[in-house]
């Protein structure tokens, strides 16, 4: 997904197809800009800071943080998907940002210098990380006392029917029952109370969670469908189980779901995410 990739399993987000799809889907994530700015604000990121970006994916938020910290600052972007980081490195190079470093590392194995970062962030990946407590412990160790960790996660499945509905359609065509609640999973931290407890259990204090509603806007149904095809690598295992004709049936059914969001000459998809912050 945003940030996206990282410590999710390498199979889902680590492939060349998934990385290319996520990269191509950046335009459909434009609504993430304001909540990403909010995440950076909550993390307290400013000029000269050293920032840790966990499960950075293709790193739109990494670059935003790098612009904030300036030439005297530094952003380390970690991820488990090498292809995602390759896109990030190229984007930083094109922008002339020499204060970005990438490192191929599982979020559960953050063996970084203790108390060496002024802030840490994680965009749209924390809910997908297995053994999440290990990752949060590593983030805790890396942060200086009194500094903050901020993260964005998806809301609950019922608040994101365009995502949960698409996955349900693919599962049904693959002959699978509706998905049970999964942790790790896309909606695992969508309940604000669960997200708050997760950070508090990891030792963060002064934890706060904000619910942020927004809308993804597409100029056409075709553009909305292209984004849907690119932005849900989680569907790939189900699609691989069915033949070409059935696959097209899946996409036709998903197109009907997306049609409900058409408004005159554009498609407006309401969405909801949570942003959380905690202090070490």
The number of distinct helices, counting runs of at least 4 residues, comes to 11
- The residue ranges in which pLDDT falls below 50 over 5 or more consecutive positions are 1-11, 21-25
Mean pLDDT: 89
Strand content: 15-25%
Q: Supply the helix-strand structural class.
A: alpha/beta
Outline:
globular
Radius of gyration: 18 Å
- Kindly state the number of beta strands: 8
Q: Mind summarizing the main beta sheet?
A: 8 strands, mixed
Into which percent range does the helicity of residues fall?
40-55%
In N-to-C order, the SSE pattern is HHHEHEHEEHEHHEHHHEE
What distance lies between the first and last C-alpha atoms, to the nearest angstrom?
27 Å
Descriptive report:
With 280 residues, this protein is of the alpha/beta class. It has 11 helices and 8 strands. It has helices at 10-13, 16-24, 32-42, 60-69, 82-95, 132-142, 161-173, 192-201, 221-231, 236-239, 244-259; strands at 50-53, 74-79, 100-104, 117-123, 143-154, 205-218, 262-263, 266-279. Strand 4, helix 6 and strand 5 form a beta-alpha-beta unit. Residues 1-11 and 21-25 have low confidence and may be disordered.
Compose a concise summary of this entry.
With 280 residues, the protein is α/β, with parallel strands linked by helices. The protein is 40% helix and 23% strand.
Summarize the SSE layout with pairings.
Layout: H1 10-13, H2 16-24, H3 32-42, E1 50-53, H4 60-69, E2 74-79, H5 82-95, E3 100-104, E4 117-123, H6 132-142, E5 143-154, H7 161-173, H8 192-201, E6 205-218, H9 221-231, H10 236-239, H11 244-259, E7 262-263, E8 266-279
Parallel strand pairs: 1-2, 1-4, 2-3, 4-5
Antiparallel strand pairs: 5-8, 6-8, 7-8
Helix pairs in contact: 2-9, 7-11, 9-11
